[in-house]
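Hey,

Quick one before I head out. I ran the complex with 2-oxoglutaric acid overnight. Inputs first:
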Amino acid sequence: MSKALALEITSKGYAVVEDYVGPDDLRMAQAFVFDAVTANGGEYIGFAGTQDLGDTFLASLPADPDFVALCRNIYESAIGQPAPDVGFYQILRCLSGGSAKKHSMRFHFDSYILTALIPITVPDHGNPGRLAIHPNTRDIRRTYLGNLIDKVLVDNRLSQALFNWAYHRGSKRVVRLSLKPGSLYLFWGYRSLHTNEPCDADAIRATALLHYADPHADSWIKQRLRRH
Ligand SMILES: O=C(O)CCC(=O)C(=O)O
Ligand SMILES: [Fe+2]
């Protein structure tokens, strides 16, 4: 299964495992998100790591042997080398309120090779908050410095304005995915320029992201700069 998924991610730009999360686990995570956004005055809130995720399935997912094996096998199928024995960089992003826009339409490359995304809640009205992916825009850079140069070229106003312009003109090169809560979406986050659409201020769009395998983890420069 992981071999087929890896091939699909490379050829299509992404792969989906439908209904990866069971209904009870999903409902509990949705209630968690709703409470967190409400407690934050209806505005954006993000959680890094697992420590504040209560007893939702998200708190134990990065230690789930099946999930870990899936990600490692996908990595190995595509990269052809043993998967590094590292954990995930995990975030739960809950978009809502006036601040939803600020956390949207910022095209970027992730620092990690594989991105696993599980939508928890999607807007039930207004902008659906799709995921936008330019499949495999770049290769894995040989050095951290090469990676850093890409990031600088992308993370500035002019580039962002161009990406947004192309996006709104309906560029065919970009995949626009309507997300289904509880399904698992996989893509090469390091290689693919991507972002999310916003949601309306009175809606909630929450996604859990588990990023796996930083190709530059051992870089001397990176360790000095202490960025991720
Ligand atoms: O929330 C999303 O749909 C994507 C977020 C993302 O790409 C990231 O946090 O790296
Ligand atoms: Fe990302």
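The chain has one domain: 2-225.

Talk tomorrow,
K.
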